[in-house]
Amino acid sequence: MKIASFNINGIKARIEALSDWLAGTDADPVVLQEIKSVDEGFPRGHFEDLGWNVETHGQKGFNGVAILSKLPLEDVMRGLPGDEADEQARYIEATVVGERAVRIAGLYLPNGNPAPGPKYDYKLAWMERLRARAAELLASEMPVVMLGDYNVIPEPRDAARPEKWVDDALFRPESRGALRAIRYQGWTDAIRIRDPWATRGPFTFWDYQAGAWSKDDGIRIDHLLLSPQAADLMVETGVDREARAGEKPSDHVPVWVRLAA
DNA sequence: ATGGTAGCGTAGCTA
Question: Where is the Endonuclease/exonuclease/phosphatase domain (predicted)?
Fold first, then answer.
């Protein structure tokens, strides 16, 4: 089972680039972030015709997450627990039934800028809720993969120019500390352990502005965290960097892990 | 130091 995450930055604008990428990969399931669409606006039929099961959790204009899966999905859960008043669509969970059942959590963590401020407070509160949910998922003792756009640069080597991010919500100590606290519950950072001593990258996001892609001025903010039961099944992981060079690309590229499941 | 781009939705917010 090859599990992938892709922040597509708008399903309407990205239907072609997404479909092209899907046609060239054996990823299944795929979690999407920033669909920027209500559930009724998502081109569900386009993907169903290609054999995908489609589960969305959208909202008008911003945010929104989804799961595409050719394998059967069970027990779909929408929204991150812990705040009934939170109306932002940033979290979806489901069980994917392959050779084994794997619980996947697709997430779009708040950006949090400008920091400090109310948006940063919301980010940190959201991360505390994610920490609580992550602990519950670990307690299930299932293979679990929590993946998506975390909007956190874990370490200086995860940015081409770390000095320009020091005051940014993606790199401030509280954001990094909150991600570290989750990781040290017992999660494995799949992309990082592929090349644990790397001094630079791999990057998953390049801003549209200021020629960031052509200068390789990227950051690593899309992550796959694996429970111990999932990490034991891991056989391969990667970043589909070439997706950033295509026609009308997203500012993120897909990240993925293959499990013997 | 500033401005640089993109998406949604059709102004201004979000990133």
Answer: 4-252
CATH number at residue A224: 3.60.10.10
Provide the token pair at A189.
């950072």
**Residue A3 to residue A151: CA distance in whole angstroms:** 19
Dihedral, CA of residue A30, residue A151, residue A177 and residue A202, to nearest 10: 70
Report if CB A132 to strand B is under 7 Å. Answer: no
**Angle made by CA atoms A12, A224, A232, in degrees to the nearest 5:** 140
The answer to whether residue A214 is domain-embedded is: yes
Question: Catalytic residue numbers of A?
Answer: 108, 149
Show Cβ contacts of residue A205 under 8 Å, excluding neighbours closer than 6 positions: A7, A218, A219, A220, A221, A222, A251, A252, A253
Summarize pLDDT for A190-210 with one digit per residue, the tens: 999 999 999 999 999 999 999
Query: Which residues of chain A between 160 and 199 are close to nucleic strand B, CB under 7 A?
Result: none
Q: How many helices (H) and strands (E) does chain A have?
A: 6, 14
Distance between CA atoms of residues A37 and A170, nearest Å: 24
Q: Could you tell me the residue range of the domain that residue A183 belongs to?
A: 2-256
pLDDT at residue A80 in the model: 98
Query: Is A261 within the bounds of a domain?
Result: no
Overall domain count for chain A: 1
Give the bridge partners for A96, in sequence order. A73, A102
